[in-house]
Write a structure and sequence with these properties.
heterodimer, A: alpha/beta, 11 strands, B: alpha+beta, Jelly Rolls, 5-stranded antiparallel beta sheet, 3-stranded antiparallel beta sheet, 25% helix, globular
Chain lengths: 284, 142
Amino acid sequence: MLIDMHIHPIFYGPICEDEQEVAFRGDTFGVWKQGPMDFDELFAEWNVCGLTQAALLPLDVTTTAGGWVVNNDEIQSLCKLYPDKFYGFASVDPHREDALEVLEKAFHQQGLRGLKLNPSKQKFDPSDPCMEPIYSLCEKENKPIIFHAGLSWEPDAPAKYAHPLAFEEIAIRHPRLRMCLAHFAWPWVREMVMLMIKYPNIYTDTSLLYVDSPEEQMQQLFTKDMGPMWFERCFPRQVMFGSNGPRFRAFKLKRALDKVPMRDFARENLYYKNALRFLSGEEG
Amino acid sequence: MVVLKTIRHLSESVEEYFNITQQVHDIVRNSGVKNGLVAVITAHTTTGILVNEALPCVEADISEMLEKTVPLEAPYLHAHFLPTYGATSNNSQGHLKSVLTGNHCLFPVIDGEIVCGGAQDIYLVEFDGPQLRKVFVEVMGE
């Protein structure tokens, strides 16, 4: 079993009928020279690395960019096609007046499993008190939040909103709210480690691949940026496999992670058990 | 007279030797061109067009030779974030193997048939799969 907790389904065939919409997604997300792909191509890649499920992430940038990079309805429609493969997440632009209504609909009517927010792209300070109703709703509904953290390649997305320390007060105020600060908050890996040691409700994922080959980057992360024992010794229940598709190819990250030395229990946690716990709040 | 056809193939593994010999011969036969040339050209830079004998042992030897010459793990420069893609390049091995195999082949066409040796099979070789791939087959002549 392998769960990819970080996929942006921008080019998934069934939601790519409108060329202008696909172009908007690409330009807003900052990804080019790729195009719509059918599920046979997608699942061929899954089969190479044994990927069995994936979290699909939309992004609502209505007030900052004038649209969505995949919307909640589209996520719902993809999940209906493959309910055994996809975990659909919701998004909401925190600046919109009906933010709570959008979220309640996503959780109660659309069956979405959590919330995706990108403070850099959506331009908000994660610890701003105006965010409290959204965090409280997620906590009350037992829905986890995946925050973008660290470097964002999206245009017009200042990294100051995505520094790991910007999220600490949320963890203090909401100890039962599970949140993933994605991408190991790269390049702020040490700060990410500090948060995970202190707050068991903070998770991260492996979707970072900015400066090296997958093998080099994963070795750097798990044996140099962190001590080689830190993951399995200190926070083995808080790191999830994530690829950040379509920016990075999942099977290459998996191939690289397979080469990182770690105990079997830690590898199982990394590949799927932590994701299951993050999604449900319960042991898988 | 020029006839252009496209062969589409979804590779299902990272490296794959896909025999397109029959498809190319059929395209030539159906093209209406009696005498001329056929060009088989991949649309990609991490695939190859290879002409060789379609035996599993030959495929394995070619694959091993390419892997030794261009190993997966080496300090390639093409392993970083590409701003023009918004994605990370990590397929230098595929690019370099593609260089070694070449991106096309040519055969003469006489009396509406490809003229070739009995062991000359045509492969589309995938070096960065799985992906949906295209090969152009252009038949030129009279």
